[in-house]
Amino acid sequence: MIYNLNFFTQYGQFYVVDKGTDGETDDLEFWSDAALHERLACENGILGISIENDYCTVMGDLEILNSPPVNEDPNADHIVEASIEIKSGTLEIQDCPLSSVIQTVALENGSYRVRVSSYNLDEAYQGVDDQMPIDKYRIEIWKESFSANKVLKQWISNY
């Protein structure tokens, strides 16, 4: 199942959350130097995803998979993976800082792997209309045992 994402968020981030989780996303340890570099922050039941544009716009999609993706998308600028435990039966996409629920997905309780592929990071503002950024985010989720965060492709800013 694929869900389209197009929403407003602030502070250059949004969240993938196990429903009911009340994480400390404003804690400096959440957005550590390593998390900023990896563009992904992790806490029990919540993942923070960094976006590139300053217009507070998230565009992309969320896909629930039956198995791990076979390959990494060669067109992605940055790819990172992390694990999340679903205990509530519901995964949520939330904005920042209000934690408004943008999308909900019913999932069987258990451990899931989350892959975030980021696109057009160097050209976030080079669209037809500079007021509409073109960076995009693809979130893929599948059931898998818990494992450490992993950067599959590291983006280095040209700025």
Write structural notes for this entry.
By secondary structure, the chain is mainly β. It is built from one helix and eleven strands; from the N terminus they run ββαβββββββββ. The protein has one helix at residues 33-38, and strands at 2-8, 13-18, 40-43, 46-50, 57-64, 78-86, 90-94, 101-106, 110-119, 136-143, 150-153. The strands form two sheets. It has a six-stranded mixed sheet, with no helix packed on it. A hairpin with a 6-residue loop joins strand 7 and strand 8 (101-106). It is globular and about 40 Å long. The model has no long low-confidence stretch (mean pLDDT 92).
Keywords:
159 residues; mainly beta; 6-stranded mixed beta sheet; 5-stranded antiparallel beta sheet; 11 strands
Which stretches of 5+ consecutive residues score pLDDT under 50? none
State the distance separating the first and last CA atoms: 36 Å
> In total, how many beta strands?
11
- Mean model confidence by pLDDT: 92
Largest beta-sheet details: 6 strands, mixed
- Proportion of helical residues: under 10%
Evaluate the radius of gyration: 15 Å
Proportion of strand residues: over 45%
Order of helices and strands: EEHEEEEEEEEE
Specify the structural class: mainly beta
Strand order of the largest sheet: 1-5-10-9-6-11
Q: Any idea what the shape is?
A: globular
* Count of discrete alpha- or pi-helical segments spanning 4 or more residues: 1
